Amino acid sequence: MPTSRTVLVTGGNRGIGYAIAERMLADGHRVAVTSRSGSGPEGTLTVRAEMTDAASIDAAFTEIEAQLGPVEVVVANAGITKDTLLLRMTEEEFTSVIDTNLTGTFRVVKRAAKGLLKGRFGRVILISSVVGLYGGPGQINYSSSKAGLVGFARSLTRELGSRGITANVIAPGFIETDMTAALPEAQQQQYLGSIPAGRFGQVAEIAGAASFLAGDDAAYISGAVIPVDGGLGMGH
After folding, report:
1. 134 is an active site residue
2. Which of 1, 20, 74, 216 has the most crowded CB, counting CB atoms within 10 A?
3. The pTM is what?
4. What would be one Pfam family of this protein (predicted)?
């Protein structure tokens, strides 16, 4: 039987985060999710946390540690978008996306790190995006934040790799979520045409990659970017 771990999924109240939390539960782990509103799947512990506020993240961890034990697997999934072209993008639209998506990940992983080091085990899984390295018009803020996660995971690997801690990145392509469903039909068709698999991905397919990275079979994989994008990025 795979080892049961305490798992935290940030932004686990919908979409990809919700699916990852469901899969981690099915794998037999103890699962907590952070959420700004709403809750995670039945059977998970939902705690309120704001990614832009270190004190709120600290309080969330304290609650999780009290109820489920030290966090051993961190899935940093919480993120926002504020898409607009560079010349129209305000500084606030840039910095707020960086603050949630990249600095928010820093706050979460830093808070988790002491426990990971103490336990000499850790799986840090950062949810990036195909646009992190492929780029996307109107997404300079978002793609910068998602590309930053790659350098984060690789530096973390060099710092903590000898302590039984891995850090990897999942780069989803276009996944069927509320966010993609809101796109105009013509735009959806255009995206489909560029995906070799000829379809959008399912949230369960991202969850499967997270399940693998959290498990015993992935102990020697670190600093990797795992694309789950139907061939769209081709190694980007």
Report:
1. no
2. 20
3. 0.96
4. adh_short_C2
